[in-house]
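Internal tracking record. Fields below are filled automatically when a chain is submitted to the structure queue. Please do not edit lines marked as system-generated. If the sequence contains nonstandard residues, flag them in the REMARKS field before resubmitting.
Queue: standard
Priority: normal
Entity type: single polypeptide chain
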Amino acid sequence: MRLAVQEAAFDFGAEASAFASGHRDQGAIVTFTGLVRGDGGLSRMEIEHYPGMTEAAIEAIALEAQSRWSLGDVLVIHRYGVLEPGEMIMMVATAAPHRADAFEAAEFLMDYLKSRAPFWKKEIGADGATWVAAKSADEDALTRW
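SYSTEM-GENERATED OUTPUT FOLLOWS
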């Protein structure tokens, strides 16, 4: 398992390739990457976190995924700092003997990261800055787990 909370951009291709290369005994690799959307006039997003607390929360989510599904490995990268539309915010990768476990665990991780990981997001656009509030759709997504 590798978890990273970082300000620096990451190379999706390099991360996905490195993750997949070490898993000869796994039959499925699933990846997901979240991007900053430029809709609504967004010029940038500022993401803040509390070091230590954020990593512990992500580790707890990843450990729960490993306990619920047959996973060979998990990768979570989440960025903070100033991000512009089109930039990658986060990446999740799961390795499992079979695709169902890899897909379900990846979705579980994404849903919980979106709703429970302690990040605070501020959107900055032509109309000023606003903190991103929790969305009921994100909370509703958690009910299936």
